[in-house]
Amino acid sequence: MLFSPFTAKSLTLKNRIVMPPMCTYSAGRDGLANDWHYIHYATRAVGGVGLIIQEATGVEDGGRITARDLGLWHDGQLEPLARIVAAVRQYGAKIAIQLNHAGRKSEVEYLEPVAPSPIPFSDKYRTPHELTAAAIAAIVGRFAAAARRAAAVGYDAVEIHAAHGYLISQFLSPLSNKRDDDYGGSPAGRARLLGEVVAAVRAAVPALPIIVRVSASDWEPGGNTPEAMAEMLNLVKGQGIDLLHVSSGAVTPAVPRAFPGYQIPFALTLKEKTGLPVIGGGLITDPIQAEQVVKTGVDLVFLGRELLRSPYWPRKAAFVLGEETDWPEPYLRGKFL
Q: Which secondary structure element, helix H or strand E, spans residue 51, and what is its range?
């Protein structure tokens, strides 16, 4: 099943293997992609990944996690990204872009961090400025503008980053959102920003699939649980969510109890309670384990660190599982027999 096709809206993948977004901190202050990014992503396409999700890409300069992250807040950033998209598609993979605003976790020193409430992530971070309703609306507009640019570049899907303690995740979590206006105070209030971003992105790119990445658990008492996250997702999924990308943690410094497959139950819970297809993973390294994950009902499997170590992992996995896949002609002499 790992090598069976999968379709969501206009997106059809040749297999169920996903490279999740992982920051490479290799851009400059201008947020432009360069040769590192080109080689990094094209290599995983040659390696046989079905879907590559590009690393967190800021919808504004101050929304980047660091000043060395990619950006998509002006048209001058499009050309080098288009080169990456063309290469990934040429070599048989599909590619999505993860749009992000880091909120209180932004380390861009020359701009002030913002958040739903003036609570720092930890004592090592700056205290953020609390967003006004007008400022929130402006950020929603920047997600939509970035999505339009992504469609112009040629991405196959757009992922909205609502996980790992970045801005939308901060609004979703009761640990970081202490507002008493329309953007806090209840599950509906905390989910409002996500719903507005999804709706704005859907209006901007009506034909593209929208993936939403969420932290299903905050790993801390009083924080979100998979059930609470499912409740909020059910309030906003009708705005245009096509696929959930299920992770966990990082809204606070709390450390998850990580082991191979530790987030798979979260993915299955969200699939059951929302009815949406899911991407699941967490320290998956073995092809047989990845196959079993799909057999449990997870639609797509993400491998992060393993694909950094082994960009041709999908080709080895096909051999282990007895699947025949097309190899690039220049690499045929190295094909597993």
A: strand 51-58
Look up the pTM and report it: 0.97
Tell me how crowded residue 321 is: count the other CB atoms within 10 A of its CB: 14
| Residue 29 CA to its chain's centroid (Å) | 22
Length of the chain: 337
Amino acid letter, 108: V
CATH number, domain of 30, equals 3.20.20.70
- Please give the Cα distance from 240 to 200 (Å, whole number): 9
pLDDT in single tens digits along all 337 residues of the chain: 999 999 999 999 999 999 999 999 999 999 999 999 999 999 999 999 999 999 999 999 999 999 999 999 999 999 999 999 999 999 999 999 999 999 999 999 999 999 999 999 999 999 999 999 999 999 999 999 999 999 999 999 999 999 999 999 999 999 999 999 999 999 999 999 999 999 999 999 999 999 999 999 999 999 999 999 999 999 999 999 999 999 999 999 998 889 999 999 999 999 999 999 999 999 999 999 999 999 999 999 999 999 999 999 999 999 999 999 999 999 999 998 7
Cα dihedral across residues 173, 176, 181, 182: positive or negative: negative
Backbone angles phi, psi at 11, to 5 degrees: -100, 120
Whether the CB-CB separation of 198 and 276 falls below 8 Å is answered with no
Does residue 1 belong to any structural domain of this protein?
A: no
Task: Establish how many alpha carbons lie within 13 A of residue 206's alpha carbon, considering only the half-sphere containing its beta carbon.
Answer: 1
The total number of structural domains in the chain stands at 1
What range does the domain containing 133 cover? 6-334
Nearest of 46, 90, 88 to residue 332 by alpha carbon = 46
